[in-house]
Amino acid sequence: MKKFIAVALLTAGMGTVSQAHAHRAWILPSATVLAGDTAWVTMDGAISNSLFYFEHHPLNLDQLEIVDPDGEPVEAQNKASGKYRSVFDTELKKDGTYTFEIRYSGLVGMYKLNDKPVRWRGRADEVKDIPEDAKGLRLFEVDNLMQVFVTKGAPTYETFGTQGVGLEMVPVTHPNDLFAGEVSEFRFLVDGEPAEDLNVVLIRDGIRYRDQVDEIQLKTDAGGGISVEWETPGMYWLEAELEQPGTRSDTAKRRMSYSATVEVLPL
Q1: 135 SS3 class
Q2: Domain ranges of the chain
Q3: If 0-12 CB within 10 Å is exposed, 13-18 middle and 19+ buried, where does residue 14 land?
Q4: How does DSSP assign 192-217, residue by residue?
Q5: How many CB atoms lie under 10 A from the CB of residue 83?
Q6: pTM score
Q7: Sign of the torsion formed by the C-alpha atoms of 102, 266, 36 and 70
Q8: CB atoms < 10 A from the CB of 30, how many?
Q9: Distance (Å, whole) CA 246 – CA 153
Q10: Do the beta carbons of residue 94 and residue 106 sit within 8 Å?
Q11: Which of 42, 85, 178, 261 allows an S-S link to 54, with CB 3.0 to 4.6 Å?
């Protein structure tokens, strides 16, 4: 079943990451901090076993949204998908922090019909259309959010608003102001409320070239916060998952995830 959910989310442009060997969905920016009158950032997106290494599937960019420092939408340029990765460019015309995100919310399921497995995606009001003779029906509500933050000039906080749905991260320390040897703070919400006792994992780039994943495992406090002491600079992939009873279907479980790519710079 976990394999099926991973495939369903992959189709939507996201991925599950419950185990160290599972497929991970990610966006990798060419830079997170830029300056100058003309500034461009290129993003790679993929789903892979090794973080930031292209070897499995390109990321679906259909749900990509980009917001500039004033909260205005920005259009991605030169979007393309190959065998293993997707790419796009963005011109940063304004000073401040840009938010890049892919949000997916939907209902996925699996059942057998005439002894053959069937994968299903749809809305809660379409569950009634599943054949009555379907066997072993299992449904999952999926709420996933993936983000990357890029700043031109001085960092700004105005676009860090939340929607109050699913798992979301509220930066306390600006995500483009992270340095090795310092401590950063982040706060997590679930449906707008503090996500207490949430497991958060951080993995530094380069796991393909080391014997151990060396993941950092943290748990949120009563206010949904974590503190991270960065020992080594590099690109980091941050991820949290949560499972709850379903809200859109009485027979479904709800699986939520949040992920982000952040860069830790040397002092």
Answers
A1: strand
A2: 2-262
A3: buried
A4: TEE-TT-EEEEEES-GGGSSS---EE
A5: 9
A6: 0.86
A7: positive
A8: 13
A9: 43
A10: no
A11: 85
